[in-house]
Structure formats: structure tokens, C-alpha cells
Amino acid sequence: MKPTVHDIARSAGVSLATVDRVLNGRPGVRHVTRERVEQAISSLGYVRDVAAANLAKGRTYSFVFVLPNYDNSFMIGIRDEVHAAISRSGAERTQIRIVEVPPFDAAALADALNHIVPDRPDGVAFVAVEGLEVHAAVAGLKDAGIAVVTLVSDLPGSERDHFAGIDNHAAGRTAANLLGRFTGGRDGRIAVIAGSMLVRDHRERLEGFLAVMGESFARLDVLPVMEARDNPALTAEVVSAALGRYPDIIGLYSLGAGNRGMLHALREVAREARPVVVAHELTATTRAALSHDLIDAVLNQDAGHEVRSAIRVLKGKVEGLSVIAAQERIRIDIFLKDNMP
Amino acid sequence: MKPTVHDIARSAGVSLATVDRVLNGRPGVRHVTRERVEQAISSLGYVRDVAAANLAKGRTYSFVFVLPNYDNSFMIGIRDEVHAAISRSGAERTQIRIVEVPPFDAAALADALNHIVPDRPDGVAFVAVEGLEVHAAVAGLKDAGIAVVTLVSDLPGSERDHFAGIDNHAAGRTAANLLGRFTGGRDGRIAVIAGSMLVRDHRERLEGFLAVMGESFARLDVLPVMEARDNPALTAEVVSAALGRYPDIIGLYSLGAGNRGMLHALREVAREARPVVVAHELTATTRAALSHDLIDAVLNQDAGHEVRSAIRVLKGKVEGLSVIAAQERIRIDIFLKDNMP
DNA sequence: CTGAAAGCGCTTACAG
DNA sequence: CTGAAAGCGCTTACAG
């Protein structure tokens, strides 16, 4: 039988309360007693039953998710996943609240984070926007003993405990590789459409993309990035314009969330003249476009994984555990039409 | 506060024992009583605390994993994951045993399955090999009330409860798509190296591969499949021979586990003359080959996911729950050198 | 057919 | 610094 606290208590000749103190590193145990208990723990090979501990603690973790009120499919997916987590709250002993902020707005984000401090939740997860005020707000949360995780977009150099998102640099490299290979040795131009270079994840994707293009596909000429703020109409317009102006565009990398607009522009082009297209995030839109050969490959980050990982890490931080990096790494999925899930 | 069994008992005016009987569909409750309790359950919005239930039950699930004693990296990975699950046994209330059988041997597999019946475990997971005797063995397990899941390779048409593995047909299609695209419009031959067409997963991959090759890449001429029983030396030999005989092989699909041998043969070929290569399973070998541009893409099934999914499904079956298909679907991962995890 | 009581493996006031 | 007792939300003999 698996040893329990009772076995340890008996073996060490102490009470359950003392075993518990040692087990949880709580103060108020004489050194010799502690040692006796630790001895018993290791010699019996005790390992704590987390479920039972949680049941006894009756503890619930309070977390706040700060998300942009931004209606692209991916962000909607993230919100849905947070709601799914909320609906699992009972079983997972969490209490999760969502705070919405305007997108791409450092001041508003910092403000929202600062307002959370007095509530003293156990942890906060947020989609980072860069800005000194955001760094300061993170420091404020940490000072208040609140665990902090960035989600989807990171804030390196800040005091956040963890980033739950993909390596966007690697995503950009992967996109370049696919686009380079899929264009099959032909010469030509590559167009890149982004949301905004002010957002870190877009910037990193572009960097990775350009690096591989330079290293491995010198025959391809990458046009200056077009920033269309993930706005469908604007995206459609700039993509149309670019395709009109450069008939030798043979590849298109959509690294932001403007896929609907991009597809609109692409449909205007005769099938044989369409460029190879790599886009981000598997949504209803990109899924349909993959099946209809309008998009050739989709890079995806799994919103469910990200949200669940964020929650797991926050819980761990509250418990003072360290993150198991390998387990919490969010993968860059590649989907072609044949391996869509 | 979340309602508990106590709340239901109070609200329905019955004892905890009766609540428990209704909750778990156990007999011995008068119809009217049962209705009263059910009414309370739904009106209070009760949802059972599974962790507490498990604690009280003290139940452990006994499972047997029947695995081929086959030393390719992927199978070793599967075994490692089962061992990892065994080491989590305490926390997960499972008791898992591994039974090894010779690979590709239907009679031996059926024998092993038959021998498990008298032990009456709660569930069995096994890597299927086709054969009537295996179907019969599965029927025997099911007759004994044992949950049955196939792992990695399926046995459709049998009475198994679930298959924990990828859609190999889709994997083959994906491979064809990648290979077709990566060869970039050039004409030439494609070589396919497999373990054995007697194994269902290999056969399905080939079918999917050939289907897409026929549909979309008529310019490519697929050579007859080479079966090398996943044997490194033999694989090296046949691949070398093929490359020697057909200098216009521009693509290679390795759909089995013979990657080490294949790589050996590839390294003999001048860098510029090397074909585009798509292989299966991310292992130390294929990982290194990806980094060194010897392999261009790896399709992967996550052994950890498969094993954990198998265990989850077995537990669910024992509890009489139905599988949430979407959650248990095993993905076909695509890895290029830039998005390796 | 129904209920009172004990127990699963922990944690937590409270008392000393 | 240490311990006895109660309790977390369930389940399980046992008795009636």
C-alpha cells in the first residue's frame, strides 16, 4: 500500500499535524522533530495525494484573465477557452474572472492591471502590449504577491513569471521554410501582410521569416511588410493593390489576423495566378480556405493549450512550484488540408 | 457555494446513502424516492466532485498494456510513456502492467490477450496486428467485461472500444502533399520505403499517399513500395539500391520505422543529388536528420498523448462514460526543422 | 428500500 | 513546539 500521512506519523512518532507542518514546510517544528519526520517520509517513499490535499484545503484559486476585446476568431477562441475553464471551475477549484481591455493599448492595459491589484487575486494572465507602463503594472502585481503570466504575446524583460504562447520567431522561420519550399524553385516576389509591427508577436514572426528568406531563399524577393491592423477591409485593399502592382508575387505570408480580408482579395485572382499562401491560426475561415486550396498551410497555436497551460502555471506559482518547461511549451502546429484536426 | 451530497440529501429529505445510490445508478431505491433525489440534483445544479469520489472509493483501475518487444525508437517511446504512467500510478489510481509480445505476430498477440482474461483487469490496451485469432481474443476480453483499446495500430471491425492512434490514411495524404510540394514542380520518381504491408498502419499510409499522388501530382512516378521490415541494414540496402538504379528519384517517403537505415543510405549520396525526404516519428534520429537537412519533414504521432488518451478512455469505459471524440483525437504533427518542439 | 456511521488522505483551527 | 479532533465531498459496509 502507498504510505499515507498516518504511516509517517506513526513511523516518526508524531501527530498528523506535525507531519503536515513538515510536509508543507510550515514553521513551528523543532529541528530534530523535523528531521525525524523527513527521515520517515523518505524511508517510506511517501508521496502526497494532491487530490486529497486539495479536498481538505477546500482552497480555490482566484485568477483574472485580461483579454483584448478584439473580435478576430483567434481571440474569440481564447475567450471561449477561458469560459470553458470557468465552467470547469468547480472541479478545478478555480475562480476565474475576465477583464476586457481595448486592443493594442498599453495605457489601458496597464490601467486594467493596476486596478486588479486591490482585489488580490492569486494570479493574473494577460495578453501583453509593450510599454513602460505595462512593465510597471507587472511589477506592481508581483509586489502584491500575485502570480503573473503573459498569454499569446509576451513581455520579456518584465517580472512576469511565465509566457504561455508560441515562439513567434520560430513560427516566422517555419512560415518562410514552407513558403520557400512550396514555391518550388521559381523566382518571384513574396508579400507579407501583418497587423501591426507594434505588437511583439507580429514583429517576431516577421524577423524569423526574413531571416530564413535571406539564408535559404535568395531567389525570392520579399516586399516591404504591409500593416493593415488586422482590419478586413483594409487588408483586402492592400493585398489587392499589391497583387495588382506586382504580378510576380508568387507567395504570401499572412502573419496577423487579417485572413478574411486577404482571402477576399485572393478570390479575385484567377486560380492559376494565385500565390502560395501561408497564414496563422486555424479558424473556420482558414479551415475553409485550406480545404478550397486558397491557403496552402496554416500555422497554429492551440488556444485551449495556452489557456490551460496558463492556469496550470498560475496554480503552480501560487503553490511555489517551478514550471516544467517542456510540459508547458506551446507547439507551433502546421496544418495542411489533409491533417486538419 | 457548490452544492454537495449533503445539500441534496437535505433538500430531498433522504440520507447520504440514498443520494449516492441515485447518483451512481445503483439499485434498491423506490421510484418516488429516486425522483425526489433527481429533482433535487437538477434543481440545485449539483455536479459531483470526482476527486472526492475517487478518494472515497479508494478504487484503483488495473490495466494491461500489450506491446511489441520491438526496439525502434517510437516503440521505445511508447514503452517509456507507459512507464511514466506507471510512475504516476499513485496519483492516478491506476495499476498498470506491461506484457511484451513479439512484433507482427497475430498468434502470439492473441495468445497474450487470451492469457490476460483470467486476471480480470479493468482494461487492456494493445498494438493490433491483424488476424482472426486477434478478433476472437478481443471478443473474449469484452465477454469478460474488460475494456479494450487499440494503440497506434487499430483493429477495425473488432469489438474494441476505441482506437488511440492517428488517422494513418490522412498521414499518408499529408506526406504526399508535402513531398509533392517540396519537389517543386520537377518531374521524377518517388520511392516509398515501408516496414510491412501486413501492418495496417503502414498499409493505410501507403493508400493515402498513393491517392494524393494520383490526384495531384501526376508528374511524379511512384515506384513500387519497398518493404524492409523496419530492419536498418535491409533498409539501407534497398534504399541504396533504388537510389543507384533510379538517379531520377527526387522524393522519398519513409512510412515505417526504418529511418536509421534510410539515413545511412542517404548519406552516401552527394548533397545536391539527395531527394526530398518525408519520414514518420520524431525521434533522436529523425530530429538530428531534420536539423542537418537530411530529412525535410517528419510526421509525428505523440506517444505521450496516445498512452494518456488510452488510459483516459479505459478509465472512462470502466465508469461507463462515452468517449469525447474530439478530445481523444490524436493529431498528426508536422515538424520541419524550425518548429521542432 | 433506507439510514447512521465510519473512512478515504489530507489540512486546519484550537488548545495546551 | 506539539497534538486531538473535526472536516473537505464522497462511498461503503452494516443494520434495520
From TrEMBL, chains A, B:
Respond yes or no to whether keyword Kinase is given for this record.
no
Keyword Transcription regulation appears in the UniProt entry = yes
One Gene Ontology MF term = DNA-binding transcription factor activity
Give UniProt keywords alphabetically: DNA-binding, Transcription, Transcription regulation
- Which superkingdom? Bacteria
CDD domains tied to this protein:
HTH_LacI, PBP1_sugar_binding
Q: Which InterPro entries match?
A: HTH_LacI (IPR000843), Lambda_DNA-bd_dom_sf (IPR010982), Peripla_BP_I (IPR028082), SBP_2_dom (IPR025997)
Pfam families, alphabetized: LacI, Peripla_BP_4
The record's SUPFAM superfamilies line, in alphabetical order, gives: lambda repressor-like DNA-binding domains, Periplasmic binding protein-like I
Query: What are the residue boundaries of the HTH lacI-type domain, all occurrences included?
Result: 3-57
Instruction: Enumerate the PANTHER family for this protein.
Output: LACI-RELATED TRANSCRIPTIONAL REPRESSOR, TRANSCRIPTIONAL REGULATORY PROTEIN
The name on file for this protein is LacI family transcriptional regulator
